[in-house]
Amino acid sequence: MITTTELQAKREKLANGLARCQKSLASLDKYLDSLAVQHLEVASLDKVLETCETSGGRLDAQKAQLTSELNVVDCEIAIESARLRTPHEDDKLRTKVAVGLFAPSAKDVEIALIYAVPFASWTALYDIRVDMDTKENPVTLIYKAAVEQNTGECWDDVPLQLETSTPTFGLDIPELSPWNLHIYQPAFKSSKSVGRGASQQSAPPSGVYYRSRTVPHTSEVPEEESEVPMDHAGAAVSSKGNVSATFRVPGLVTIPCDGDVHNFTIVELSLKAVMSWVCVPKIDTKTHLKARVTNASEYTLLEGTASVYVDGSFISRSVVPAVSPQESFDCPLGIDTSIRVTYHPVIKKLSHSGFVSRSANHLFSQRITVFNTKSVGIDQLKIIDHVPTSQNSAIEVKLTNPALTVPSIGEGTSKNAPKEPQVVKVAKGVKAQWDGVDEPGCEIESLGLDRKLNWICTVPAQGKMNLALEWEVNVTPASTKVVGL
Q1: I want to staple 448 with a disulfide (CB 3.0 to 4.6 A). Which of 189, 386, 400, 434 is the partner?
Q2: Neighbours of 289 (CB within 10 A)
Q3: Cα distances (angstroms) measured from residue 166 to each of 160, 169, 244, 246
């Protein structure tokens, strides 16, 4: 095998030959350019041109040959350099351990060797399959492990154990440094005076300076599967602590030392889920489908990429967050084209009132139509919209339909603040409420301050539903120009 040093020497020799060839061609061209009529006889012209043509052709062939050989040597150097950078098994298997044993009598001794190796890791992958016709457990989650290792030795027919914990070294409990306050002292800068009458700029008034606190912190595409469902053997959970869990992959596995990703199935879970549909028709009339999935298993789900299938069709890729047993998470399921939402043009009416202080009354009516083309009815369809918010006392906004009470700024701290969320029954199967009421950690006092509301609808199969949003904007005086109306 040719070494890198020999290849570099060969390359240098070829590069020098190529440089000489290029210099000879340049000299030949320069000679032809220097020919003059007064110094060359006509009888000798053919002989000179023939000689130059022969020499030029020979040099061109030599240049092409040297260039080709130089490219081959460059490729050989790149391959050899990559080979030298690749760790070899022998390099990583040279560690020796000497064990000294002392016993009062001869006995059989069994020694278990446990050691840690670098360049071995695994990440979580998921297949989420949703059956819209199943009511009990509509979500099937296939928990996978993407394992890669480049430890220097192949793992042939070994039991594989996966842990959710990551070894951490040197992570101490953070300590708070003193938090001091002091008076801000501005730096005085001298300014050069230009001409008579120029004076130094006065310094800004001093004030109290608060130093901000900082909190230190420490941080740490699957291919589409076949549409035919497969049975998977579940992994045994040997540790069920609140900190980490340990899984054992069924059977024996083989993972070569190649640094490539190898997928193994941990378990297949049938999980409960609540389906919901969300649409913001003012921005986009597409209806988004999502599932609130409850991890009712004993498995801790790590954060990982998920391929989502709905009724056997690949829909999208999403990310599953870290989920503990009995915890829930949201899983987006893409667009549901069978729910058609129409956002009709807004109807505007203008009237005036008052004699001394004339006011302009703007009436707005927005109609939204929902059509369920499914053969089954749907629950939990959320339609989100909003009304404008006044930023001036001369502009008054009133929500007339649905009849939700519009809170005022600062009302959240008053005694008249609502004690429970407002819910208005609009029609059969339709209720209106301020948006955000169903979000975790929502504050009742702040609901409606952004003037966003939603309707929760139950739409029967092949059924249509009309929603109405009406509001009034009063402007005093009427000549006031309102921006954003």
Answers
A1: 434
A2: 23
A3: 16, 10, 9, 12
Beta bridge partners of 162: 247
Which of 41-50, 253-262, 406-415 is predicted least confidently? 406-415
Task: Give me the percent of the chain exceeding a pLDDT of 90.
Answer: 31
> What gap in Å lies between CA 430 and CA 457, rounded to an integer?
5
Q: How many CB atoms lie within 10 A of CB 266?
A: 25
**Range(s) of the domain holding residue 8:** 4-35+49-80
Asked if residue 88 belongs to a domain, the reply is no
60-102 pLDDT per residue, tens: 888 899 899 999 999 998 888 888 777 655 555 667 788 888 8
Tell me: do 348 and 456 sit in the same domain.
yes
Q: HSE, CB side, 13 Å, CA atoms: give it for residue 130.
A: 23
pLDDT digits (tens, 9 = 90+) for 173-182: 888 888 888 8
- CB-based burial of residue 116 (10 Å sphere; 0-12 exposed, 13-18 middle, 19+ buried)? exposed
- Domain count along the chain: 3
Same domain flag for 159 and 135: yes
Residue 485 within a domain: no
What Rg, from alpha-carbon coordinates, does the chain have? Answer: 39
pLDDT digits (tens, 9 = 90+) for 104-123: 898 888 888 888 888 888 99
Does residue 415 surpass a pLDDT of 60? no
Please state, in angstroms and rounded to a whole number, the distance separating the CA atoms of residues 182 and 467.
Answer: 59
State the pairing for strand pair 139-149/430-434: unpaired
The DSSP-derived string for 236-262 is EEEEE-SS-EEEEEEEEEEE-SSS--E
Q: Sorting pLDDT into bands at 50, 70 and 90, what band is 308? A: very high
Let me know whether 141 and 274 are in one domain: yes
Average pLDDT of the residues in 472-481: 87
Residue 97: inside a domain: no
- As to burial, measured by CB atoms within 10 angstroms (0-12 exposed, 13-18 middle, 19+ buried), residue 370 is buried
CA dist 122 and 254 (Å) reads 15
Confirm whether 188 is domain-assigned.
no
